[in-house]
Amino acid sequence: MVSVSVTAYPHNRNDEGSHSANGRECMWVKGEYHVKLDRIAENSARALGRDRQPSLFDRLAWFGLLHRLCAPHWRILAVRTRSEHSDCWLVLAHEHEDSLISLANWYSFSFHPIFTGTPSDETKLTLLTAAAQRLRGRACRILLEPLPESDLALVETSFRRAGWRVFSEVKTVNHTLDTDGIDFATYWAGRPGALKSTVKRKAKKNIVTLELFDRFDADAWAAYEQVYAQSWKPEEGHPEFLRALAEQEGAAGALRLGIARIEGRPVAAQMWTTDHGVANIHKLAHVEDSDKASPGTLLSYAMFEHAFERDHVRTIDFGTGDDAYKRDWMNACRPLYRVEMYNLRRPAAWFPALKTALSRLVKRRGSD
């Protein structure tokens, strides 16, 4: 069965279903499960589409590509709860029979509950708590990552209220740039002196030529793949996923693919997407024997300038990881969390929960 409806029930209210002990009106929550992303009802699919979800990583199309081309063996469990004309979605996958994980991997900049409509903070808490309650019947363990700090309190509170034992720790970090309404010249004036000097010196030599594509181009993509294969980067995990993403975002006008060449040879490449005022830097690479000309740095300069002056973005997101070079270009760094929850109503969760608790205790003592 593709979709399973969950009986509506009053959340956090007394048995009469009219008022809770604190006197607030009863909030009824409906819910359903989906095990196939391509069968989600049309109205729900629209709510998870480009027009209504500003973040690429919150869209049904993103999860569909990720599942189809990176993890087709994962069994999907997308949970939806609804109340007050708002939805909460958790798009999960079965890691094992009794273990659920976020439908995310190293291509994902973030993962969190997705809300549609305009829910208040209280409604968000109610909807996510309802989802957590329903998931008690589906799993002993749930792992969510990489979760932004802005969602951490909501997730922890919701799952604890639903009876889960919750453990959280910083998994990695995310470097971003808030443009703050400034122009590119002002931004560039604030960059480190060594970076500005490199760009000035190398640009004067006029060795590197740059191209920027905002639509998918097969020849440009072949150049990107050539650079990546010759770079210091490890072998691409799922090149077919990246190409499909580039084609999808290119068709929407959201792709920004930059290629740097020396004497016609591709020596540096970057893949960005830009949508709803946010530019995401997905991939960058350069050929090491071209380092003297700094093609990667010159290409970054051009890509950032385009994001400021042409796309007028509010935010540039450098993805996950604490690579030192990101600090030269970004002005903010936020933690991303790994949140592990155990359903202690199931005996199978007791030992792994205890093991996790002891592991966290040892880490805390080691850091004191």
Write the layout of secondary structure elements.
Blueprint: E1 3-10, E2 28-34, H1 42-47, H2 60-70, E3 75-83, E4 86-96, E5 99-102, E6 114-116, H3 121-135, E7 141-148, H4 149-161, E8 164-178, H5 184-189, H6 193-205, E9 208-213, H7 218-230, H8 239-251, E10 255-262, E11 265-275, E12 278-286, H9 295-309, E13 315-320, H10 326-329, E14 332-343, H11 350-367
Parallel strand pairs: 5-7, 12-13
Antiparallel strand pairs: 1-2, 2-3, 3-4, 4-5, 4-6, 7-14, 8-13, 8-14, 9-10, 10-11, 11-12
Helix pairs in contact: 2-8, 3-4, 6-9
Describe it for me?
There is one protein chain. The protein has 2 domains: 200 residues, 3-Layer(aba) Sandwich (Aminopeptidase); 134 residues, Gcn5-related N-acetyltransferase (GNAT) (Aminopeptidase), CATH 3.40.630.30. The protein is built from 11 helices and 14 strands. This is GNAT family N-acetyltransferase. GO terms for molecular function: transferase activity. It comes from Flavisphingopyxis soli.
| E-strand count | 14
Instruction: Please summarize the sheet with the most strands.
Output: 14 strands, mixed
Uncertain regions: pLDDT < 50 for 5+ in a row?
1-25
Helix and strand string, N-terminal first? EEHHEEEEHEHEHHEHHEEEHEHEH
Q: Whole-number average pLDDT?
A: 91
Write the CATH fold name of the largest domain: Aminopeptidase
Summary, kept brief:
This protein is α+β, with helices and mostly antiparallel strands and 368 residues long. The chain is built from 11 helices and 14 strands.
